[in-house]
Amino acid sequence: MMQFLRFLAAPLLVCTTFATAAEIKPFSAHYSLSRGGLDLAAVTISLREYGADRYVYESETLAVGLAAIIRDDRIVERSEWQLSNEAIRPLAYSYSHFGSEKNRNATVNFDWQTQSALSNSRGKVRTIELSPGALDKFLVRLALSLDLQDGRDTLSYQVADGGKLKEYRFTRAGEETIETALGEITAIKVKAGEFDRKYGTTFWLAPKYDYLPVRVERTERGALYRMDVEAINGLDRVLARTLPVAADIQPNRSSEGSLGASSVTSGGKTVDTISQESSSGI
Questions:
Q1: Running along the chain, 282 residues long, what does each successive block of 10 average in pLDDT?
Q2: Cα-Cα-Cα-Cα dihedral sign, residues 188, 212, 145, 255
Q3: What is the pTM of this model?
Q4: Of 38, 205, 242, 263, which shows the fewest CB atoms inside 10 Å?
């Protein structure tokens, strides 16, 4: 899986995410990422407040199992943002991938006084002209949950990605009850971007847990990758089962991008490991 989400650019629609009805609650959610029953990574996604109306939304991914033996990957994606006139406004986005052949880093810094953002990825510095309601490509996930809480039907977002603004679109695909580590959960099924047999991403977002994802599936080149919830802390509740043990690594603290996987061979066996193609996605 080259990207955990792949979105295609299209004519932009303005959709500003407001947080009036949707109460913002700090949380941490833990997931396992697998392919074909083989555990690849442990993922933690969290939201915390660090000042008046200022928040940090962060994801950390650690290789586990055989994948960790082959490569000690660690991916950190982070968004700093604020509430401005009851709307989400990104301040800084960062991504770091450690453990790959070359450590990868990217940043986007937002300047709302000049309505622009400065993107720095793989040594390429670009200026992005912003429109009202623009988000970074990680924060869009939180915006999706908040907009579903508010009952919005238009799930289209302008996103600073790859040195320009792109449109990320989501489509409701009905309701489904699924089995999870937390028990049976009824979730809203949402598809991202355009979907076909070879590529596509589907979210299962649970109203019971403020529309946090309880499952995400990504199809890429015929391979199916799945991220399943293991525990949720916060949201006025604590639910968990025994979590997979992450790889025993000592990573640097830093942080861009999206989650993926690649294959390597060890002892005659093909093993999936985490990878990242920094261009867009979740």
A1: 31 39 82 92 94 92 80 90 89 89 85 96 92 94 91 89 91 95 97 73 95 94 92 67 33 36 34 35 36
A2: negative
A3: 0.75
A4: 242
Element (H, E) at 68: helix 65-70
Q: Which two tokens stand for residue 127?
A: 């200026």
**For tokens 């928040």, what's the residue?**
55
Q: Give every CB contact of residue 2 below 8 A, 6+ residues apart in sequence.
A: 220, 260, 275, 277
β-strands 260-266, 237-240: how paired? Answer: unpaired
Q: How many domains does the chain have?
A: 1
pLDDT of residue 100: 63
12 in a structural domain = no
Rounded Cα distance between 248 and 237, Å, is 29
Residue 19 belongs to some domain of the structure: no
At 153 the pLDDT is 79
Distances (CA, A) of 76 to 44, 86, 179, 271, 272: 10, 27, 28, 22, 19
Biggest CA-to-CA distance, the chain: 57
Long-range contacts of 199-202 (CB under 8 A, 24+ apart): 199/6, 201/4, 201/5, 201/6, 201/282, 202/173
- CB count within 10 Å of CB 234 equals 17
Cβ atoms within 10 Å, residue 271: 20
Residue 177 inside a domain? The answer is: yes
Contact 276, 75 (CB under 8 A): yes
Quote the tokens at residue 196.
Answer: 């076909």
| H or E element in which residue 20 lies | none
Alpha-carbon span 104 to 269, nearest angstrom: 27
Contacts (Cβ under 8 Å, ≥6 apart) of 183: none
- The verdict on residue 144 lying in a domain is yes
CATH code at position 207: 2.40.360
